[in-house]
Design brief:
The chain is 34% helix and 28% strand. By secondary structure, it is of the alpha/beta class. Strands 13-12-14-15-11-16-19 form a seven-stranded mixed β-sheet, with helices on both faces. A six-stranded antiparallel β-sheet has the order 7-6-5-10-9-8. A four-stranded mixed β-sheet has the order 1-4-3-2. The longest helix has 14 residues, at 97-110.
Amino acid sequence: MFSDKKVIDLSRIVSSREALRIIPPAMARRLGVLPVMIADEKLYVVMEDDEDYLVLSQLENLVGLPIIVLKPKTPESVAIFIRKYYPEQVSELDGTPLGLLEEIVFRAMLSRSSDIHFDPERDQGYVRLRIDGMMRIDQQLPLANMNELISAVKVSAGLNIAEHRIPQDGQLTLWIGNDEISMRVATVPTLYGEKMTLRILATENTLAELAELNMLGMNEQHLQTLLGTLENAHGVILLSGPTGSGKTTTLYAALRHLKKTGTLHILSIEDPVEIPLDGINQIRIDSERIDFNRALRSTLRHDPDVIMIGEIRDAETADIAIKSSLTGHLVLSTLHANNSVGVIARLLNLGVATELVNSALRLVIAQRLVRSPCPHCVRLETPSTLDREFFGWNNEEILVPKTVGCPLCNQTGYAGRLGLYEMVPIDRKVREMIRNKESEDALSHYLFGDHALLTLQADGTEKIRKGLTTPEEVRRVVYLNDK
């Protein structure tokens, strides 16, 4: 047994199942030991007291493997993560379909998954997790076990267990340890049986590290632009980006910032409510009884200062949202478009009058999520010819992060994500260009050329230089015509 000088960040790794199973939960909690991984026939652990050689000797005798002690980035985090991996409340459902579901959800939560997929194929079923935006196989199951699992989830989510030919949607809540985990459930018939997807709805605990705007990866210019716009008493702030680009997280962080003063009445309209926020009145959309338009009209009678709309989906919602801002409300919402300038064109295409857009719109944000390189195995290399051309580094000596892969990141080379941002404040010149119906290219030339605002690609380039992401990640999420 010996100590490894490698420092690990427990918040950016996931302990392997094999390592967790090798030390019983009661012993891990009693000894203050968290197993991390098994590699090269050695067990790697972190400890609350890494100089307690009696404990290390007991561990070696128990597991029959040499023990390597890693150094945690923050020693006080060891106890926190031991409680996280070994919750004291033990489920009594082991061996049942719901017990298997709890195990899968628990593992998904530990690995920061956003979605769990149950996929039937010809001979077997696959459980896949979406981790940091990418799909990963978690385990294989016999089709009979997969069907039992899907049926158990359907019962718990209030779906029709006998219906296999049409899509169904519902919601499910599980208690995993001390955490209440809510999930959206969706089923759809496929060639080899029913497919089910569980979207894990974040909790206050799981999003604690993203609770503040300065935790999302914005540079100082972007952060001050957004904070300054949030000080407006009225107007519209719109976010755009594909599904899974972190728009809701940004909106929630903005609402947390606004509620700090305690002087604002904040209402949100969401489908569904993803995170309950104290101090904010959140309205859940129910398609059978209340839609976005009806909910939005109703909120205006409750004297709000700030209204958050989960998504502007149609012309009527866009019109009401814009007009709401003109009557003294600050409105935050999302709208699907390829980039920030495209949001303006999308609003106009929805039929919102040009003068209303000019009067109400304050800030447009486009965002994407990119993965961060694993800090335990990343190395620096010279960029490829493709990267030099894409990022404009043709005549520049530069080193960029290169992913390698190690047991701590499950050989992916990545751990965690951060945002890329493109922000367009609506100034007098932009309003004039909108009024004159100038093209998206003309707007882009003024904003990102003459006005020197950062495009998504430029923000990504800046973050590559700082070692926060890789060229491959930025090229993956940024459109070539953003260049």
